């Protein structure tokens, strides 16, 4: 704060083309300007707001100071501004796993600061050089939750959160070279601000800064941009194009040298513009024609400015204020309004007539290029930028309070990575249960424990010079852990009777194909299946009788060929009926398990598909109708050389032979009576039954052969 004293307030605007100095004395009606001096650089000792030749700039400052001292007396302290065109803007993005935990204010703030760190590293090119930049402001471009843009992260839950910011940075070398030039001119820097902030102080009172406004300082080489919202400056930008581009376009159109084109440009409001081109021709150009000749260049400049405004602000602002000598370019406000989609009256040139806080403003500062030096004086009086020395742990860091400083700013300047302060969330468990994928989050990591001058604080807590910050990183969260029984829904129990005894059937649980117990810990990316068994085989396994469907193999020879017979060890019935392993079981069912009898040949004969030939099938014609008699097996057996019957035991290594029973005869007439009832052929008055085979009389024992023609009749 500059106090009222005998020495007047000295404000100095060191521009690329000129240096403007003024002295003023505070009074009841505001600042009274006592003297103004303006000097132009004789060489290109300033480029885009950066001092490139400290001795030459210092000499020009010394000369200007001397002229002012002749009017107001000795000057020792000075208020200055760092050029807005020296500001560097860069985007940064940070993404952090949050594993379903709710996002609190400090976590969101920490995510923004991580993105700001990344932007500063991106701008510097490496970690070591990042400390060469002071952050003077940032604004959030976008929040993300699980890959989807979202308006506000506060209070949200998700797996992954992200933030993208635009950060504005001032290289330390700008401030250091400015201080060096002042020191060489025998001056002390007592107040520092940024040119855009100075202009905003002059043109936009605090009551208006809630509005989303944009200030554009159109100079010679650059157009500097500042964005206000919610009572503060939220973003800065710069376009490397301004009034000189218009001058160069005129020089090319009318064949002029740069200085002549610049002089002609400043005369655009005249009805007739007179100049001599490089060929020596004197020209008289009507004002409207001359203005039209610069329209294309004006359109190009407004396009660049509009694009930068939309990039910084994300949308058209409420209004745009133009200052600087280049803002007087004809058609620029209208063209910029069209590019931004704003009504023409929302883009306006502002001059010192709109600056409050001065008792009187000299004519030399009346134009829009006088706004910045007046703003530097006001900023020095109302809100000078101070250097804040803050201790972080045992280290001391220096911050410029271009904006309200916070604990987070101090930690970043101290080289502390914000991400490292937040405990990592515990690893989540991803599980598939019954085909449904579920994610079980680990516990959230805790935020840092921050103490400011011994009291609890947050990353957003304000700090001032002399403050002491102590920070202890948060602890990592615990990995997700649970048992299978914590995840599976309750399963309805099943109870059955086995040999008359009630037996409960537990649920079957499998993890990654292996059967496990309910209290088994779940592993990540596991596939879990749980169900009450219904197949009889599964039920018997789970009640302790897995052997119920077991079998044994018996190997023997049959007619000289090696064969085998598979015989059950047990006979299983369900509710009194035959049962198979896949038979479905219901609660209350009765299962009986008894030991199977020893195997006999008949068991194998039932399942053996091979049949030895016996008497072949017979097909004959009876009374004009085909009749078929199925063939029959007539077999006898020998086991190990001795006669045996189908009820004989079947043992490993036995030698079985099937033999034909020779007593079995051919088919005869009487065999037909198995399928034909003679009584059904008998008329009511018949007495005698007759048989003919192939036209010859036959008896009941006459042999039959396939194809024979048989006649049966009564007389």
TrEMBL record:
SUPFAM superfamilies: Actin-like ATPase domain (SSF53067). The keyword Membrane does not apply. GO terms for biological process: cell division. It comes from the Bacteria. Residues 9-203 form the SHS2 domain. Keywords: Cell cycle, Cell division. The keyword Cell division applies. InterPro entries: ATPase_NBD (IPR043129), FtsA/MreB (IPR050696), SHS2_FtsA (IPR003494). This is Cell division protein.
């Amino acid at each position: 704060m500059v106090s009222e004293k005998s020495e007047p307030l000295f404000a100095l605007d060191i521009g690329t083309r000129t240096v403007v100095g003024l002295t003023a004395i505070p009074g009841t009606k505001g600042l009274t300007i006592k003297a103004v001096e303006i000097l132009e650089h004789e060489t290109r000792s300033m480029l885009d707001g950066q001092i490139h030749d400290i001795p030459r700039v210092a000499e020009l400052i010394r000369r200007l100071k001397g002229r002012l001292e002749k009017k107001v007396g000795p000057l020792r302290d000075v208020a200055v501004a760092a050029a807005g065109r020296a500001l560097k803007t860069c985007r940064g993005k940070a993404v952090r796993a949050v594993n379903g935990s709710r996002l609190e204010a400090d976590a969101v703030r920490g995510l923004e600061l991580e993105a700001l760190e990344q932007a500063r590293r991106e701008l510097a090119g490496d970690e070591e050089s990042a400390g060469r930049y002071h952050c003077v402001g940032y604004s959030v471009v976008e929040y993300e939750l699980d890959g989807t843009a979202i308006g506000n992260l506060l209070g949200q839950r998700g797996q992954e959160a992200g933030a993208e910011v635009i950060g504005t940075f001032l290289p330390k070398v700008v401030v250091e070279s400015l201080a060096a030039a002042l020191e060489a001119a025998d001056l002390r820097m007592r107040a520092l601000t940024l040119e855009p902030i100075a202009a905003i102080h002059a043109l936009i009172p605090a009551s208006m800064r809630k509005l989303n406004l944009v200030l554009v300082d159109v100079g010679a080489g650059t157009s500097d941009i500042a964005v206000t919202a919610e009572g503060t400056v939220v973003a800065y930008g710069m376009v490397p194009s301004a009034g000189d581009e218009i001058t160069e376009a005129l020089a090319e159109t009318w064949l002029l040298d740069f200085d002549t084109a610049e002089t002609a440009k400043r005369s655009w409001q005249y009805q007739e513009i007179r100049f001599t081109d490089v060929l020596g021709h004197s020209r008289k150009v009507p004002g409207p024609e001359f203005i039209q000749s610069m329209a294309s260049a004006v359109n190009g400049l407004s396009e660049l400015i509009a694009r930068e405004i939309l990039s910084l602000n994300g949308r058209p602002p409420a209004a745009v204020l133009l200052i600087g000598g280049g803002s007087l370019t004809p058609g620029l406000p209208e063209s910029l309004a069209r590019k931004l989609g704003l009504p023409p009256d929302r883009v306006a040139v502002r001059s010192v007539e709109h600056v409050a806080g001065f008792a009187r403003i000299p004519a030399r500062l009346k134009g829009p290029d006088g706004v910045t030096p007046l703003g530097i004086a006001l900023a020095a009086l109302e809100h000078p930028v101070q250097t804040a020395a803050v201790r972080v742990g045992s280290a001391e860091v220096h911050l410029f309070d271009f904006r309200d400083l916070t604990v987070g700013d101090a930690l970043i300047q101290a080289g502390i990575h914000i991400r490292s302060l937040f405990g990592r969330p515990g690893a989540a468990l991803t599980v598939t249960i019954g085909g449904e994928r579920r994610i079980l989050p680990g516990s959230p990591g805790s935020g840092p424990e921050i103490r400011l001058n011994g009291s609890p604080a947050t990353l957003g807590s304000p700090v001032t010079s002399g403050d002491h910050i102590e920070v202890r990183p948060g602890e990592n969260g615990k990995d997700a852990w649970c048992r299978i029984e914590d995840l599976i829904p309750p399963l309805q129990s099943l109870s059955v009777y086995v040999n008359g005894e009630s037996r409960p059937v537990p649920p079957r649980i499998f993890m990654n194909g292996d059967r496990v117990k309910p209290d088994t810990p779940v592993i990540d990316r596991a596939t879990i299946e749980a169900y009450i068994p219904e197949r009889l085989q599964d039920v018997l396994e789970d009640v302790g009788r897995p052997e119920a469907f077991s079998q044994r193999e018996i190997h023997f020879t049959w007619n000289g060929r090696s064969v085998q017979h598979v015989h059950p060890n047990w006979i299983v019935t369900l509710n009194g009926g035959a049962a198979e392993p896949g038979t479905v079981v219901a609660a209350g069912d009765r299962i009986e398990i008894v030991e199977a009898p020893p195997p006999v040949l008949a068991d194998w004969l039932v399942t053996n598909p091979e049949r030895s030939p016996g008497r072949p099938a017979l097909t004959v014609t009876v009374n004009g109708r085909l009749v078929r008699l199925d063939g029959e097996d007539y077999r006898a057996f020998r086991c190990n050389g001795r006669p045996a019957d189908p009820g004989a035991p079947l043992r490993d290594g036995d030698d079985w032979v099937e033999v034909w029973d020779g007593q079995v005869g051919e088919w005869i007439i009487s065999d037909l009576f198995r399928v034909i009832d003679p009584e059904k052929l008998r008329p009511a008055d018949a007495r005698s039954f007759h048989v003919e085979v192939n036209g010859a009389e036959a008896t009941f024992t006459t042999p039959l052969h396939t194809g024979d023609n048989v006649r049966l009749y009564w007389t």
